[in-house]
Amino acid sequence: MTCQAKERFSKDSIQQLIAAINQKYDMADSLHYEVQRSTTSQEGTVKDSWTFSYLSPSSIRIDYGKPSPRLIIITRNEIWEYLEEPNAAMRTDLSGSSQSEHAAAFSNVIMRVAIPGLKPGTFDQILSRKFKTSFEDPILTVHREKAPKFKLKIDTEREILLLTEIYNKDGQLEIKSSTSKHKEVAPGFWFPQQIKNTMKTDIGFVSSQVQLSNIAVNRPFPKKHFIFNKPNNLKLIEK
Fold first, then answer.
1. What are the structural domains of the chain?
2. pTM higher than 0.85
3. pLDDT of residue 56
4. Could you tell me where the beta strands, DSSP code E, fall in the chain?
5. Which pLDDT belongs to residue 2?
6. Are the CB atoms for 150 and 172 separated by under 8 Å?
7. pLDDT digit string (tens) for 75-123?
8. In angstroms, rounded to a whole number, what is the distance separating the alpha carbons of residues 145 and 151?
């Protein structure tokens, strides 16, 4: 790699590149996609599916298909969690919550359907260590061979995080995530349609394959999309 390329991919420029990827998600007015996920561990394979809808700044709707039909809606003022069987719903009142309390509730909902590798997040901690770079236009590889090791692969042209590998100080893999089959869902916004993950857990390694479809960014939603329509004979639990 040329000296010019080395200067181009300094720690600061890599952080800026990752921030640019994150910004595409953060700046979206709305986001919608369908998920099919297969998760394998030593306990077997589990399949689940859901549809995710987001409207800025704080509305989320999650329609679960598998393992059982379920609906979650969160807005600035409330959270609804509904189970078709036994036709019961729990409502959490957020109208008097502080900004931090609402953020915590919002984060709790997001974590249930979090997909590692979809949105990069920050890598400030690992990038604070010494690392090497290599560049084969347009793919940038950022890696460290000494413990704790890590590797990132970034498509600098389309601004896509292709691969993440992070190891602990003992050289054991903590997480590996790869994205592929990217689709341009908005100008300059390339969204993965396939994500593969391997994570170390208390029960050993867990692997998942995720398929994303019907992806839409900045699409308008009907107002009623984020309003819970109570069915007849609903069993209501207030929290």
1. 3-24+117-211 (no CATH), 28-116+219-238 (2.50.20.10)
2. yes
3. 93
4. 30-41, 44-55, 59-66, 70-74, 78-83, 88-93, 132-136, 139-144, 150-155, 160-167, 173-180, 183-186, 189-191, 194-201, 204-217, 235-238
5. 39
6. no
7. 989 999 999 888 999 999 999 888 888 888 888 888 889 999 999 999 9
8. 9
